[in-house]
């Protein structure tokens, strides 16, 4: 697949025709063309920080780069000279996690957010006439109203007066420089900062079916550059949320918790929506350059692409229970009868002419590559990429027979590869194959195998029996059915034994046994309810059970480290004492109730789960476990490529349309967290655990999928690196960072 052409065509043809091409964005397509991306190599390493570099951002003109670090400094770099211009001693008492240039201020105003829960504004003009060593200046504005770490800042194109900050305290605040340059520290008796735009302190959901209850610790936010009234946020659950700022209620203070406001859209891959894991959370959310798509990066998961306006129609939107429906055997799908076998309508649905015939020939060749990969025992990765090219790059040009064939082959390859959630992707393919051909033996067989991998044996049995009916003479299917029945019987026996053992052990106790995640999640509502007061007042609980667990925990300050290397192992007995029911409602430092103001009314109204926009592409190969500031970004003004950092010190670039890996580069000794493309040039800046920032340009002598540049040797085996990352994802522990 490495030598197979990409969808942006030949750069030479593009250069020859750009003077006659009337499209306004013709030059945008040249910025990150595949022939340039495949030549990216490290050009420069910027030295100037004394700690992990957690944030990098370009100014709108691309002439300056700003960075924030664990050393609590903000550095400003010149793009043209690649030299340090200013180093600001911010006064933050903890790691700087985010920093931005404020638009329309001649790049004189910069803002920072940090682990000390503060947002600070600085005026670079105060450095006029100073040397680099004279770097201490007083902030022009200081906002101390957050109670937990500030993880992300957002600015609006053309707006020099306002900055938005997202914090792990569950609030997104709007700071207007015209209304004041400071606010009292959180917990002050006289604090009344009416700057909360989003109060999500009761906004987190464990699954789609559950109503929001706990604090949504915000990790990321973004404002659309094309429609600035749209605001995207992501945090400590699986769902990104899109809000229209014009529809939000007036700014409020932290005195009283509010029910989460309605959002325009929820975004979440369907297979993650009913997971129920308290550890599953987003580390980064962002809009595409044209504002029509969003990109989500998950901790312990992959990177996913979604449409903002669910342009894909019905298939792109789902609600509670839909994930279970596609795993259940039924003669109808979505209320519609399954299609008859392909041969019944092939001749009327496929029209071959001109370019379509050429495209079909290319697709048939790719399908043959994938089939050989499956039958000859080769690594499934390249066969899957070949299928992706057909199904994602040429779908409109192929008929149902070829599409069905490709779906079945890809499902089989995914089940063979067994990377994280490959079985879920195979289920999607089998579902779509069954919609094309209801009598497809392979679609039923692979669906059964996928469900087996997910330990859903009862559902797997239904599909295995259906496959057996479609091919009664197949002795392998008869054996498969019997094996699944044995799995079901063994699972029932184990369940009964656990129930009996659990009943015997729990007799002396008055309460039920809880998992640690249950206790953390349930008690979070109580400990967070008073988070606007001093931290000592937040340690409250009202349960009286005991649980023994094995746990992993990371050392303090692991935001900038590979957590896996710092695991502490052990077991822990936790006893939580139940208080009287009258003491359940906590009170914050200002004397107001910690529960939502409308909770009594909401308790009487049955909860109606939201509809959610599903994924349209997945990007795999990297690893996002060790830090919760890891970014995924669109590259270029057209956003045709997707990039993400990784825990193995590399950063990855994929073709957006097909998910095909185009480049893998070594960018850090430990972890790459930040990837930011230059606004106009084919230049990318990256940073991570190292104290330096790397600048990447298309300076390699030959194009390739891998290049280490000056940061290290080329990685010889791409698959080995990706396999290692998948093993890390599979070992990902079940608690949040």
Automatic annotation (TrEMBL):
<feature type="region of interest" description="Disordered">
    <location>
        <begin position="578"/>
        <end position="605"/>
    </location>
</feature>
<dbReference type="InterPro" id="IPR045151">
    <property type="entry name" value="DCAF8"/>
</dbReference>
<feature type="repeat" description="WD">
    <location>
        <begin position="46"/>
        <end position="87"/>
    </location>
</feature>
<feature type="region of interest" description="Disordered">
    <location>
        <begin position="523"/>
        <end position="547"/>
    </location>
</feature>
<protein>
    <recommendedName>
        <fullName>Anaphase-promoting complex subunit 4 WD40 domain-containing protein</fullName>
    </recommendedName>
</protein>
<dbReference type="InterPro" id="IPR036322">
    <property type="entry name" value="WD40_repeat_dom_sf"/>
</dbReference>
<dbReference type="Pfam" id="PF00400">
    <property type="entry name" value="WD40"/>
</dbReference>
<keyword id="KW-0853">WD repeat</keyword>
<dbReference type="InterPro" id="IPR001680">
    <property type="entry name" value="WD40_rpt"/>
</dbReference>
<feature type="repeat" description="WD">
    <location>
        <begin position="89"/>
        <end position="125"/>
    </location>
</feature>
<dbReference type="InterPro" id="IPR011990">
    <property type="entry name" value="TPR-like_helical_dom_sf"/>
</dbReference>
<feature type="compositionally biased region" description="Low complexity">
    <location>
        <begin position="591"/>
        <end position="600"/>
    </location>
</feature>
<keyword id="KW-0677">Repeat</keyword>
<dbReference type="InterPro" id="IPR015943">
    <property type="entry name" value="WD40/YVTN_repeat-like_dom_sf"/>
</dbReference>
<feature type="repeat" description="WD">
    <location>
        <begin position="665"/>
        <end position="696"/>
    </location>
</feature>
């Amino acid at each position: 697949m490495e030598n197979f052409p990409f969808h942006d065509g030949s750069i030479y043809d593009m250069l020859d025709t750009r003077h006659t091409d009337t499209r306004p964005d013709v030059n945008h397509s040249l910025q990150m063309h595949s022939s340039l991306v495949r030549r990216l190599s490290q050009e420069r390493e910027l030295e100037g920080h004394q700690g992990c570099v957690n944030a990098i951002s370009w100014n709108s003109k691309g002439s300056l780069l700003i960075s924030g670090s664990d050393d609590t400094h903000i550095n400003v770099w010149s793009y043209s000279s690649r030299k340090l211009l200013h180093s600001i001693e911010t006064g933050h008492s903890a790691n700087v996690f985010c920093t931005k240039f404020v638009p329309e201020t001649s790049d004189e105003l910069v803002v920072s957010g940090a682990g000390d829960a503060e947002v600070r504004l600085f005026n670079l003009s105060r450095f006029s006439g100073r040397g680099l060593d004279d770097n201490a200046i007083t902030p022009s504005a200081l906002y101390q109203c957050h109670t937990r770490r500030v993880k992300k800042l957002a600015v609006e194109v053309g707006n020099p007066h306002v900055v938005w900050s997202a914090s792990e305290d569950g609030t997104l605040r709007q700071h207007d420089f015209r209304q004041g340059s400071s606010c009292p520290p959180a917990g002050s008796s006289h604090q009344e900062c009416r700057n909360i735009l989003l109060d999500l302190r009761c906004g987190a959901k464990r699954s789609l079916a559950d109503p929001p209850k706990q604090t949504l610790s915000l990790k990321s936010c973004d404002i659309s550059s094309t429609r600035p009234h749209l605001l995207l946020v992501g945090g400590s659950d699986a769902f990104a949320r899109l809000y229209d700022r014009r529809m939000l209620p007036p700014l409020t203070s932290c005195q009283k918790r509010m029910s989460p406001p309605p959002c325009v859209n929820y975004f979440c891959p369907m297979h993650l929506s009913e997971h129920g894991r308290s550890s599953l959370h987003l580390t980064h959310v962002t809009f595409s350059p044209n504002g029509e798509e969003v990109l989500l990066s998950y901790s312990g998961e992959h990177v996913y692409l979604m449409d903002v306006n669910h342009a894909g129609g019905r298939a792109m939107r789902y609600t509670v229970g839909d994930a279970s429906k596609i795993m259940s055997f039924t003669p109808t799908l979505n209320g519609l009868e399954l299609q008859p076998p392909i041969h019944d309508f092939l001749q009327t649905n496929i029209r071959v002419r001109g370019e379509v015939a050429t495209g079909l020939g290319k697709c048939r060749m790719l399908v043959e590559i994938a089939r050989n990969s499956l039958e000859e025992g080769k690594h499934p990765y390249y066969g899957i990429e070949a299928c992706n090219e057909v199904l994602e790059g040429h779908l409109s040009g192929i008929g149902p027979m070829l599409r069905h064939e490709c779906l079945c082959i890809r499902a089989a390859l995914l089940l063979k590869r067994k990377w994280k959630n490959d079985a879920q992707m195979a289920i999607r393919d089998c579902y779509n194959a069954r919609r094309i051909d209801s009598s497809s033996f392979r679609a039923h067989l692979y669906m059964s195998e996928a469900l087996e991998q997910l330990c859903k044996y009862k559902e797997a049995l239904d599909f295995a029996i259906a496959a057996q009916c479609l091919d009664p003479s197949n002795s392998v299917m008869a054996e498969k059915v019997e094996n699944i029945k044995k799995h079901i019987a063994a699972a029932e026996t184990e369940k009964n034994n656990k129930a009996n053992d659990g009943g015997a052990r729990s007799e002396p106790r008055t309460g039920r046994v809880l998992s640690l995640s249950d206790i953390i999640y349930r008690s979070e509502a109580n400990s967070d309810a008073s988070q606007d007061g001093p931290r000592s007042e937040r340690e409250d609980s009202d349960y009286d059970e005991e649980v023994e667990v094995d746990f992993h925990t990371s050392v303090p300050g692991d935001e900038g480290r590979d957590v896996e290397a710092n695991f502490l192992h052990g077991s822990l007995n936790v006893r939580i004492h139940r208080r009287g029911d009258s003491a359940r409602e906590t009170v914050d430092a200002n004397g107001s109730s910690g529960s939502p103001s409308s909770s009594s009314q909401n308790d009487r109204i049955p909860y109606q789960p939201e509809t959610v926009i599903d994924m349209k592409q997945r990007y795999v190969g990297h690893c996002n476990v060790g830090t919760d500031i890891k970014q995924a970004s669109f590259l270029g003004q057209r956003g045709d490529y997707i990039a993400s950092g990784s825990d193995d010190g590399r950063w990855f670039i994929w073709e957006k349309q097909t998910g095909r890996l185009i480049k893998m580069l070594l960018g850090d000794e430990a972890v790459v967290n930040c990837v930011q493309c230059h606004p106009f040039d084919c230049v990318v800046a990256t940073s991570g655990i190292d104290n330096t920032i790397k600048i990447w340009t298309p300076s390699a002598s030959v194009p390739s999928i891998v290049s280490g540049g000056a940061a290290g040797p080329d990685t010889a085996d791409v698959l080995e690196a990706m396999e290692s990352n998948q093993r890390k994802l599979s070992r990902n522990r079940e608690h949040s960072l």
